[in-house]
């Protein structure tokens, strides 16, 4: 696709003598661009469409006579999922875990990130490297020792344990990202606040954090998403149904049922709705952050 | 005021004032919770995993030091060998495809065309979808019964036979790769688009004045401008892809007959058999390659930082 743009651009420059052919080439390039983008968008939307449509189909329309557009729309799959499979419980568990992880990590990471950005002290380079290494250490390497550790602490198979363990990826992530946002807050504003009688901690709470609000919102959403999506650690650390998170409940739905596609896609739809909402909020915050940055720059 | 610590540090420790010392204590206190939690939840388990991989630990028995025996044992198994090969294939093929698609779409959206904002939002959609939702949806899409891909292929006449995409060796790996690329390319798209937008327009103007054609402009202006981002993205994406669990677990669980088996899934299966030492050895086995990627990535990211 890179070749398409560069190729048409080249044609446009070569044809400089005659205005009409430039315009025609530009038009051709536009059309090709829209065809490529349209095709990409179709490929992106089709799975999303299939998820939604499968969740609204009757079993016979899913399995026996599949079609692109269902003849009958039904909420039966959602009823099976919510009533028979009690899917509200895993949604609730996921909410508790993801919110707790987000609040804890964004709060203590913002202290750490502020300290790393504003002060100079011994071992700062070392701490910075530790955070970055932790950010890049995959959970696939940590899930075995973490499950042993949680069992020893008596925190296995509980939401508390899950919240604690999820800090292993959320803290490095949020500290790393927040450092970037805090660097953009000018020192002068903070110093002004301290002249006006704020303590340094007060300046952090009253000046730095509010000024980084778009960044904090974006980081919160990243952290929430990670905690909401996590499957491997939940699979290893929880055994009883009462503490299953949403991804885990859907994972067990495949292994337990024969052809559960309807309720499964209903569950997939319900578990992506909160994130899609957050995503659109995030996009607005990110645009705000970007424009604020460009005004400052 | 804020520079006092730096100034004091430069002037030598003997001249440290009480206020400065209090300030540095405050700085340490702020960073302490994160450091302690990372030491306890990442550094200690990381070292512990390496230790366990050298023992014959099983559930209920801490086990003895057995040296390299776990590694010798797993290296001889066919499953482990396919996990090595499959991990390399997934990382390289998805990496190349995500770079190509991400770069191509970023170049298209970077043009000043009406509707680019809408396209940008839509192209980011797979990234906003939880990974487990994306891969469960693809699992349904690939089904011979109830799957959207077979429906499209048979109804449009592109391919008249129903294919069990995830159930046969020849198509399982390409299917896993296609789903991973669908979910993973937006990260590349966003990163490269941001890099493209940071290239000053004057560089293109200058190249145009010098008579550079489109290919020369891409090669001499665009590519050098995005190369640092492409390198960091490649490293990060390789680390994440090599250690991803959801895509293979939710689509194929490593099957059919290990055709899509990768390290994290194999380590998880190992843990289910309760032979913890061997399971840990599986996840530690990829550490040397991982370490090279991580060290390379951190050095670039910290340089960025300063």
TrEMBL record, chain A:
Where is this protein found? Cell membrane
Which residues does the UniProt record annotate as the domain ABC transmembrane type-1? 91-282
**Name of a matching Pfam family:** BPD_transp_1
User: Gene Ontology terms, cellular component aspect?
Assistant: plasma membrane
**Which residue ranges traverse the bilayer?**
31-52, 95-114, 126-151, 163-182, 203-228, 261-282
List the InterPro entries: BP-dep_ABC_trans_perm (IPR050901), MetI-like (IPR000515), MetI-like_sf (IPR035906)
Main location, first listed in the record: membrane
Q: Which UniProt keywords apply?
A: Cell membrane, Membrane, Sugar transport, Transmembrane, Transmembrane helix, Transport
Keyword Plastid present in the record's keywords: the answer is: no
Topology relative to the lipid bilayer, per the entry, is: Multi-pass membrane protein
Gene Ontology BP annotations: transmembrane transport
Name the PANTHER family for this protein. Answer: INNER MEMBRANE ABC TRANSPORTER PERMEASE PROTEIN YCJP, MALTOSE TRANSPORT SYSTEM PERMEASE-RELATED
Which family does the UniProt entry place this protein in? Answer: Belongs to the binding-protein-dependent transport system permease family.
Q: What is this protein called?
A: Multiple sugar transport system permease protein
Organism whose genome encodes this protein: Devosia enhydra
UniProtKB/TrEMBL annotation, chain B:
- One Gene Ontology cellular component: plasma membrane
Chief place of localization: membrane
Query: Which residue ranges does UniProt annotate as crossing the membrane?
Result: 23-47, 83-109, 121-141, 176-196, 217-242, 248-269, 281-301
tRNA processing among the record's keywords?
Answer: no
Question: What membrane topology does the UniProt entry give?
Answer: Multi-pass membrane protein
Where does the record place it? Cell membrane
A Pfam family matched by this chain, by name?
BPD_transp_1
Q: Which InterPro entries match?
A: MetI-like, MetI-like_sf
Q: Does the keyword Chloroplast apply?
A: no
Indicate the family of this protein: Belongs to the binding-protein-dependent transport system permease family.
Q: What protein does this entry describe? A: Multiple sugar transport system permease protein
Specify the species. Devosia enhydra
Q: What is the lineage of its organism?
A: Bacteria, Pseudomonadati, Pseudomonadota, Alphaproteobacteria, Hyphomicrobiales
